[in-house]
Amino acid sequence: MTHKGAGEGRELTAETLARVEGEGAMRVVVTDGEVSEVQLRIYEPPRFFEAMLRGRGHTEPPDLTSRICGICPVAYEMSACRAIEDACGVSIPEDIGLMRRLLYCGEWIESHTLHVYLLHAPDFLGYPGAVEMAADHRDVVERGLRLKKAGNALMTLVGGRAVHPVNVRVGGFYRLPTGAELRALRPQLERALDDALATVSLAAGFDFPDFEQDHEYVSLRSERDYPIEDGSFVTSSGRDFAVSAFGDWVAEEQVPHSHALHARLRDTPGPYAVGPLARYSLNHDRLPPTAREAAYAAGLGTTCRNPFRSIVVRAVELVVACEEALRIIDGWSDGGAPSVPVPPRAGVGHGATEAPRGTLYHRYELAPDGTVLDAQIVPPTSQNQAGIESDLRGFVQDRLHLDTEELTRQCEQAIRNYDPCISCATHFLELTVEEG
Amino acid sequence: MSALVVGIGNRSRGDDGVGPLVAARVAELGLPGVEVVTYDEPLALVEHLAGHDDVVVVDAARSRGGRPGAVRVVRVGAAPLPRDAAALGSHGLGVADAVELARALGRLPRRLTLVGVEALVIELGAPLSEPVRDGLDAAVDAVVAALPAAAR
């Protein structure tokens, strides 16, 4: 085992393992006891899809882009629908908006449960992975699987399928579930709410490294509710801007070491972050009552700056998703049309919604007949990339005394704080130390 | 109880779509008592393995030095699977992880067979590669051979 003191040159490189959700590698260079370089390549950009969308009809982007991610297809569908409807000047009735929020709750439950229970919790409980954790904490893993199943049930009823929903269309849905069908899910969702609350208690009991970052937080914020499928942008330094102004505020830059474009705020030198910590810190006053109580009981303040505590915030957002799903089901009344017509017209449209791991932005330019002339997709992971690199820089610097195995483990945990798409790989970094 | 064939993978990612493609071919055979499903992610296996006597899982695989299109059959027995995600599946939380998680939770079916097809290209948006296309028939045969005699 290599064990180097400060003052020597080190280079930590990590090459990728095969996996589906992304392509990753990490390189950390240490010179004279200082971390001089951190490069992370963790996301494969959807450029192919942007190119493929050109020439397609205006009704196609939701279905096509949902294929980009097996974990958050609803996010792609919702941002695409909103952008196309914006381009066509169509507003969606309130009940369709609520049904979209309900579907999205299902995805939050599925995605957050997967990350909290099977990818991140083993880090905190001291296991190499979920399988080893299951041997000692079977009840915990069973609870996670039960929660995920509740998310699956919502997705199946509203979306038509547990993964890659087929019921979503521009303008709404092909079919709306009936109130009776929705109410039949109630017992399972009540149980899920209890399980989500137990998740908050579990996560709140973990030990967290003493580490804080000061990234600019960026999130959607809506009139009334915690941001999921709706809202306009706000930032932690008090700026706000419309979804249509995203391109004026955010620049995407090519960096040599990554396939992905790095996003940065044009007027802010440091990195910015999207995702649960940003959402929570900018919308604490929008938490529904049970989630707010749970956050308080877990010791979370109105903002959270420790990325390792993101697992607690994710658990609180599980409560939000269950609580909101129950609220929507209880208030549902049948009778509305499942969709509204979205006749094409020439124009540019923007859509942004809160994917489980952060804000997902779509922009489409349409020809008069609806043909897509140009498409832009900015996923949350490419927006968080610079922030993750910044975290690693500070984090590794304070832990150079650790041996390679432990440092690798802790770096993986630090990256997983952001639930990047690559976190589908529970162990994706093979860290090797080279003497400088 | 019926036999279950599970195809795992994402058809938008080149050879990663081989699992669902093979599953679709098996479904077309209309074998009696054989249910065929596809999942995008292996974790779904944990939820669906129990409740069947015979399960055959087909997925893209990436092993070091493996020949693209080659078909590998692994009968899951009492010994834990090697957990090298790259060797048995192309997914992050891989098929081997899902199987072992199911084992830890007492959810394994009586007989479980994994059919891996060595992948060449799993880039987002890529088509199925030539070698994997050529290996499709062999993969379908391997899945059918792993089913109980009554279904064949």
Automatic annotation (TrEMBL), chain A:
<dbReference type="Pfam" id="PF00374">
    <property type="entry name" value="NiFeSe_Hases"/>
</dbReference>
<keyword id="KW-0560">Oxidoreductase</keyword>
<protein>
    <submittedName>
        <fullName>Ni/Fe hydrogenase subunit alpha</fullName>
    </submittedName>
</protein>
<dbReference type="InterPro" id="IPR018194">
    <property type="entry name" value="Ni-dep_hyd_lsu_Ni_BS"/>
</dbReference>
<dbReference type="InterPro" id="IPR029014">
    <property type="entry name" value="NiFe-Hase_large"/>
</dbReference>
<dbReference type="InterPro" id="IPR001501">
    <property type="entry name" value="Ni-dep_hyd_lsu"/>
</dbReference>
From TrEMBL, chain B:
<dbReference type="GO" id="GO:0008233">
    <property type="term" value="F:peptidase activity"/>
</dbReference>
<keyword id="KW-0645">Protease</keyword>
<comment type="similarity">
    <text>Belongs to the peptidase A31 family.</text>
</comment>
<keyword id="KW-0064">Aspartyl protease</keyword>
<keyword id="KW-0378">Hydrolase</keyword>
<dbReference type="InterPro" id="IPR000671">
    <property type="entry name" value="Peptidase_A31"/>
</dbReference>
<protein>
    <submittedName>
        <fullName>Hydrogenase maturation protease</fullName>
    </submittedName>
</protein>
<dbReference type="Pfam" id="PF01750">
    <property type="entry name" value="HycI"/>
</dbReference>
<dbReference type="GO" id="GO:0006508">
    <property type="term" value="P:proteolysis"/>
</dbReference>
<dbReference type="InterPro" id="IPR023430">
    <property type="entry name" value="Pept_HybD-like_dom_sf"/>
</dbReference>
